[in-house]
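Possible race condition, two jobs.
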Amino acid sequence: MKYFLILLAFSCFSQNQENQILKIGDRTFVLFSEKSSKKQFSEFTHFKNKQFKTVDSIFAQKAIEQLYIQSCNASKQFQTLTQESTFERLKEEGNGKELRIYKKQVRRENKYFLKYCPKWNRDLRKFDGQILAYTNENKHLILWMQLFNFESDPYEIKRQYINFWITGFHDWFETNVQRFHFNTNTNKISINEEL
């Protein structure tokens, strides 16, 4: 129950009357308006230099199509960058034992990823979502997509995600929420748009 309370504390800013609903098959995506996005995120440091935009349904459809094509590549790119930075840190620390253990872990992670990513990619087609848009420092239009697997919904988030941008951590959020960025200028999907 504590996660539900956190959810409401973070999410009570954007009202649905400004947002649009995009249906793709039996999936529902909420397209956040500029006004709604500003209410929610304008005070966050990460968004200080970004200009929010109303999500265009054509760009949203294109982003979702590209997500289904590129999600494994985006996830692999993120995984590789994370692994490389960890390798560098362990080398700098000079801890050979930890470095050998981490190399074994990376080999296991990579095998697991290759085996399961195609399934994870197919599963994304069962997710509903929220999308907001902003321009980054390079003046590229970025769509931030947050996807939810509502097959199990113990906190009844599905009733709320149309009205509020959902934020949460741990428990249900770790296994049922995926976040991606789509750069409309490059047509690339990424985990972190800065990559």
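Job #2 (started ~2 s after job #1):
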Amino acid sequence: MEKLFPIFLAVARKRSLWRLSFYSAAALLIYLAITAGSFRYQSVCDKCGAIKNSTDWNIPFTSWCLFTQANEAETELSRVLADLKLVPPHQHHWLFASGAGNGAFCAIGPGRHLRQNINDRAFSSLIARLSSVGQSKFRDKLLTIALNPDQSLAVRMIWLDAPANSLISDWNEWVKEASETVDRGLEIRPR
């Protein structure tokens, strides 16, 4: 029996060493996934202008996703569209805007072109104002363009010379001029 004791001790040490190695490797993998494997990104809904911030937790430097965390947030524009009931209940259509992490320093997508318009309080106020003065056709035209990544540049800063009053005649005149400006912007926009 005395001769067998060292053998049992050696086997027990070997098993402990394997367990220690396994748990150490698992702990290292979890640590790397938390610190180096996260990819954070933002997406924009091209129907209502809402934003989704997401984090994919990947095995570092691979595309194998362990799990994803995401939260949706209202923007200036999505709040106005909801208040005016201009967008019916829908399933969001997310366009990737930008992201970084897990080996990528700067990833960009078409949704990035929408962010300036959807976060612009003045643009959102213009949409609400156009509704209140009966210019729904031009309002809808602006929204269609603003939520299209290939055209959204054409309506940036359109609100700068909008009338400050509620006179319908002033708004009719401004809409005519602004519509021509937007159309010209769409014509020169490279496709």
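The radius of gyration is 28 Å.
Logs attached separately.
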